[in-house]
Specification:
- This protein is mainly alpha-helical and 129 residues long.
- 62% of the residues lie in helices and 5% in strands.
- It has helices at 7-11, 21-29, 58-109, 111-124, and strands at 2-4, 32-34.
Length: 129
C-alpha cells in the first residue's frame, strides 16, 4: 500500500535534514510511501535498480540489508549446489564410460579365449556337440 510522502517526512530523516525545503517539496512529490512488513521482498534477483528505499532508522536499514544479503547467499549456495550436482553427474558418466571402455577392450582382446571357454562349457553341459 502506498501513501503520500511529505517534505516534513523527508526532513525528519538524517540524509535529508539539511536539504532546502523547496528541494524537499520537489522530491516528496516524486515519492510514494510503502509500508513493508517483516518478510516482504523489497528487491528480487534480476529486478531493475530503479527504486530507492529510505528506512526510518538504522535498525530497520540493517535488517533490510541483512535480509538482502541472506537472500543473496541462499541464491549463491543454490547455484553452487546445482553446479556441483551437474559436475558430479558428468564425473559419474565419465567413470561409467571409462569402465564400459575397459570392458569392451577386455572383450575384444580376450574374445578368442572367451569363445573357447564358452564352447567348452556348452559342450560339457551337452548343450552343443
Amino acid at each position: 500500500m502506498s501513501a503520500v510522502v511529505t517534505p516534513d517526512d523527508l526532513a525528519a530523516l538524517a540524509p535529508f535534514d539539511r536539504v532546502a525545503p523547496s528541494e524537499l517539496a520537489a522530491l516528496a512529490g516524486a515519492l510514494d510511501r510503502h509500508t513493508i512488513e517483516p518478510g516482504d521482498v523489497i528487491y528480487g534477483e534480476g529486478d531493475a535498480g530503479d527504486t530507492f528505499v529510505v528506512a526510518p532508522d538504522d535498525r530497520t536499514a540493517r535488517q533490510i540489508a541483512e535480509r538482502r544479503e541472506a537472500a543473496d547467499r541462499q541464491a549463491s549456495l543454490a547455484k553452487a549446489r546445482k553446479l556441483l550436482w551437474k559436475q558430479l553427474r558428468l564425473l559419474l558418466l565419465l567413470v561409467f564410460l571409462v569402465a564400459l571402455g575397459c570392458w569392451v577392450v577386455y572383450l575384444v582382446e580376450n574374445s578368442a579365449t572367451l569363445i573357447a571357454g564358452l564352447r567348452q562349457f556348452l559342450t560339457e553341459q551337452k548343450l552343443i556337440r
